[in-house]
Structure formats: structure tokens, C-alpha cells
Specification:
- This protein has 188 residues and is of the alpha+beta class.
- It has helices at 29-44, 56-71, 119-134, 149-157; strands at residues 13-15, 19-22, 76-82, 88-98, 103-110, 139-145, 161-171, 178-187.
- The chain has an eight-stranded mixed β-sheet with strand order 1-2-3-4-5-6-8-7, with helices on both faces.
- A hairpin with a 3-residue loop joins strand 1 and strand 2 (19-22).
- GO terms for molecular function: protein N-terminal-serine acetyltransferase activity; protein-N-terminal-alanine acetyltransferase activity.
Amino acid sequence: MNKHPLLIDFPQEITTERLLIRIPQPGDGQSVFEAIQASKPELKKWLPFAQGEQTLEETEINVREAHINFLKREDMRMHIFLKDTNTLIGSTGFHRPNWDIRKFEIGYWLDKRYCGNGYMTEAVSGLTEFAFQELQANRIEIRCDELNKQSSAVPERLHFQLEGILKSEDKAVDGEELRNTCIYAKTK
């Protein structure tokens, strides 16, 4: 059970009813860049990577680094595609893994053009089920800014337990004010 993380078979993709969720691949940079650009004002409120301007080349480098980190099992970012059209609509994955206790944090963002369709709830539900069944997870966490109501709606819809709110735990992405962080979890 306590295999080295590199020896754990992890599929290149996970599917749900409407989605294909897969490891970042070289060449995904263009689609990721376009999704970020289309959603920049929304993403900029919450995510550090959206603060500055990023070129297409920088985005492609980031995708390739994410591919390497996935293979090393250090951070398992995944891209979300619509099954029917193979359109990239966002990103998710298992972040900050603790392989000794089998704890994973699920993070996510969605291209604003695809919000309001239940895609992120479906993706996180699929990842949660996969983590418990295939990775023998003992704990899945979702952390988000207390003010990010769209983000917190996902774990709430999926019946994650709000374990606590860490007060003044982090800075806002603009670095100007302190923010509270909600910690949601599901355990085995």
C-alpha cells in the first residue's frame, strides 16, 4: 500500500459523463492561454497566476512543467475538456499531495464561457471518487478564499464538510489585504 508515488499507476485521463480530465500535454498551451485570456477579470480576483500578463510561450512552458510535475507525482494538475468537442474549459487536479497519509487538495478554475453548467462540480466529483477508489485517499481537501462564493459552492454541492475558516490566513492575490481561507474536506 505504501508504494513510492512514482510506482503508482495513474491513468492519463479520467472521464465523467460530459468531461475528459487529463494530464497536461505539450501543445495544450494555446488552449490554456485562450481560456485564461477569456476569463482574465474573473481569475485575477482569486488566482496568483492571473495577476500578470503571460505570453503564449510562457503558458506553454508552464503546461510542460505541469506535465513533468505530474509524472513526478509532485503536483497532479489536469486539464478539463468537453468530451463531445474536445474543447478545453478549465483546469483542476490534485495539489500538495501527502503520499504518506494519502491526502490531496483539489484545486480548480473554469473558463468563464463555460460557467453555470455544472462542469466544475462534475469534474471535482469525478476526481474525488477517483481519489478514494484508485489512490486510496484518506482525505480530500478544497481550500478557497471565504469571499469566493463560486468556488465554495462546489464543495458545498458535493457535501464536503466545512471544517473551519482560518482567519487572516493569507493575503489577497493583489497583496493588499488579509483574507480568510475556508477548508472543506471529505475523509474515508
